[in-house]
């Protein structure tokens, strides 16, 4: 696959990159080189090759989604300018905002 100058300008526009006229030819050569490497990689036979890391049958353990106070409410609220609440738990007090 080979890119023409109009396609290079379009890619630069989509990427919000300003290219001067003298840079278009150099960028075209660089992009065509990158596409050449991709074509070479696609030609490599990978049938039967196991992935080295990630993917496969690996899955993350799910943890219980529990709501807690973190176990240190006094430390968290120690520097609060306004503390509110009582028996049910304390929390940060914030000014009322009405627009």
Instruction: Supply the CATH architecture of the domain at 5-42.
Output: Orthogonal Bundle
Unreliable stretches: none
Which term fits the overall shape? elongated
CATH class membership of the domain at 5-42: Mainly Alpha
Indicate the mean pLDDT.
Answer: 86
Largest sheet: 2 strands, antiparallel
CATH topology of the domain at 5-42, which one? Histone, subunit A
Helix content: 25-40%
Q: Could you characterize the architecture of this molecule?
A:
The protein is elongated. Helix content is 36%, strand content 8%. By secondary structure, it is mainly α. A two-stranded antiparallel sheet has the order 1-2. Strand 1 (83-86) and strand 2 form a beta hairpin. It has helices spanning 5-14, 21-42, 73-76; strands at residues 83-86, 89-92. The longest helix has 22 residues, at 21-42. The protein has a domain at 5-42: Histone, subunit A, CATH 1.10.20. Pfam families: GatC. Keywords: ATP-binding, Ligase, Nucleotide-binding, Protein biosynthesis. It catalyses: L-glutamyl-tRNA(Gln) + L-glutamine + ATP + H2O = L-glutaminyl-tRNA(Gln) + L-glutamate + ADP + phosphate + H(+); L-aspartyl-tRNA(Asn) + L-glutamine + ATP + H2O = L-asparaginyl-tRNA(Asn) + L-glutamate + ADP + phosphate + 2 H(+). GO terms for molecular function: ATP binding; glutaminyl-tRNA synthase (glutamine-hydrolyzing) activity.
